[in-house]
Amino acid sequence: TNPVQNDEQQAVRPRSSRRVTSYHHPFQTRCSPCNDPAPSYASATRTPKFPPAPRFFDNGKEVLPKYTCSVSREGPMQMRIEKISPFQYLQKQDFRTVYVVLNGTQLSVHKIKTVQLAGHSLPTAGRLIKRYTLQHAEIGLATDIQYNQLLPATRLAHFIPSAARRKAYEKDPELFTPISQVVLRLRLETDQFLLADHSEERIFRWIHDLSASIDISLPLDERSAPKPCTIPRRRRRQRTQATENINDQNVIAEQEQIMREMYPSLARSIERGSDGAELSRTESAEDTNALTLTGTIDQEVEDIDLSFLAEDLGQEQQPSARPANLRQTTSSTVSTWRYIKRCMPTLLFDAPRATDIIMCHGRRLRVNTKMDMLEEWELAPPSYDVHDF
What we know:
Layout: H1 41-45, E1 72-85, E2 88-89, E3 96-103, E4 106-117, E5 120-133, E6 138-141, E7 147-152, H2 165-171, E8 176-188, E9 191-197, H3 200-215, H4 249-262, H5 264-273, H6 285-298, H7 306-317, H8 333-343, E10 357-360, E11 363-368, E12 373-376
Antiparallel strand pairs: 1-2, 1-3, 1-9, 3-4, 4-5, 6-8, 7-8, 8-9, 10-11, 11-12
Protein name: PH domain-containing protein
């Protein structure tokens, strides 16, 4: 059974890419060489400049400052496990509601428990299901999953078990209200599972906190500089060839209307330039070939978010009392979240692993894909090539 299939229909798989697009922390499998000079013999026999400090009675019993965790998040989410090892897939399962707690470099999954507070039901953490470490973890949006949570719309629907709600919804769609979910995929230790929530903003904040936890999970000597994605990904959509007649007057009028609405400043400059010269369209073969060549070149250009540009143009045209030399840097909330979404990492079901090293029961193991097994692994010393012998 293919676990990428959703509960309603089989999700269309995008073109598989061998490039790692998930968020992970770079890890070196070899130690870095130490280029510090050796100490001199004189420093070993030199007497200390200051005498050792006297020992007090409270030495080693000082009151430590309070510890506060700056990376933490918790809340109820929908969860579905896809793999329990890099080589073992699970059968198709339904999403179940759990309570997820992120505390520093540890992610805990609990059963959800409801408590009554001031007449309101609040979800909280129940019995612990499993704990994960964020060392050598990978996270990203599961763009190959489409999932809708079914909420009961009638009293009768509340008595239908969760496992039978999908079939009941297919027979009578009025029993439930489908809520679209944003799905996040995680690879922690030997497991691979999905977390879903209806709020896109909440998922983005989870990705931000999980990325920070991944960056600080390794020991200080093994950490590298984090590499977050701050530039939007390039979109590679399957474009269809235009079958319309480009010389059709209706098509030309429609394109002119789009240019006037999306780029009013450009349209005014064209109209001013057309006052002194008469523009004419000839239906010759040369013009047709030139337009066809232009359309072919544009197919390789990255997609442009026209709505984002329209918002920027609208803001620039609004009169304001600010100085003319002061650059406008504010943008709407919608365009900001659209930009954040394009910067989010993605992790597909069969995407290649960023590293072959994983954590299992507190030990580091190497994934051997040829033998389909996990091997013992230790940090190797630096190679002789780095010393330039």
